[in-house]
Amino acid sequence: MLTYFNTIVCLILITEASVNAQLLEGLYCGKENCYDVLEVTRESTKHEIAKNYRKLARQYHPDLHRTLEAKKTAEERFKVIATAYEILKDEEARADYDYMLDNPDEYYAHYYRYYRRRVAPKVDVRLVLIVTISIISAIQYYSGWQRYDSAIKYFMTVPKYRNKALEIARDDGLLVEDKKFKKNKKELKEETEQIIRKVIEDKMDIKGAYAKPSVTDILWIQLIILPYTVCKYIYWYVSWFWKHTILKQPYNEEEKFYIIRKYMKMNEHQFKSQDDYKLEEFLKQELWIRENFDEWFKLEEEKAKKQLAESNKYKQYRRYIKNHGIGRMTFDDS
């Protein structure tokens, strides 16, 4: 009989321990059961949970208590009730909580699921991505036009391009003054500047990073046409391998420039900004052949070193290093 009684007591203790193990400190309602806090059961509907929450919230609202101690007690209870309602009113949070009650041994999993939901952003990630890509695209397009406008203004100040633009404007009859309407010097100057700018924009092909921006350069369009770009690259790579590796066909001019650009480690914009006479020299010297390029590159390095050695500023720098050694350099002329 005593053994039977001890068994019953052990079972009761194990059951209590198992119930307490389901409730973890720092998660959800802590050591209290959220359903018990709101005086509902796991089978209760959303309507029943909300109804009990409103009833308990009115009962434990701090403003309804007069003494300081009562207010403090009510405020603490009100926070627990509000926490329980936040958990049970949301279907996903309630499912996580029920999972914790049903699987008390998965301690680390419960902490991970709880804090992942707490820390996770409330805004839809897809919306964040759309807004971010849109902002980057707008900045890209605006910056491109800013660079292009700066390039045009610069060319308008260079005598070589300015005089050429004026010559083209005269040949096209754009600078013929209208005898009927007399204009003052300021109006004439503004009109001339506009004509020069228009001629430079229409007649001059600005290459490189300062070229006229295109819609296809922005991130949104690049993402939209990404499948086409990938297919195009695969087709190009297969064609290149077939033509030049299998069939041993010679390179055309565009392919030669591509190889030279890769050897020079330049992107497409940088390479296109090279002067036309330089590009012709690259072809004449057959720089798409690796041996020729290595020899040309070595000569260019030696030429650059020679120019640097003959530079007055570099001579002053070497003289300073010789006299003072490598150390802190100041720009105090006093």
UniProtKB/TrEMBL annotation:
Cell location: Membrane
InterPro entries in the cross-refs: DnaJ_domain, DnaJ_domain_CS, DNAJC25-like, J_dom_sf
Record key words, sorted: Chaperone, Membrane, Signal, Transmembrane, Transmembrane helix
Main location: membrane
PROSITE patterns: DNAJ_1, DNAJ_2
Gene Ontology CC, one term: endoplasmic reticulum membrane
Signal peptide start-end: 1-21
SUPFAM superfamilies: Chaperone J-domain
Superkingdom of origin: Eukaryota
GO terms classed as biological process: protein folding
Membrane topology: Multi-pass membrane protein
Transmembrane intervals: 123-142, 218-238
Every J domain range: 33-101
Family of the protein in this entry: Belongs to the DNAJC25 family.
Protein name, entry field: HSP40-3
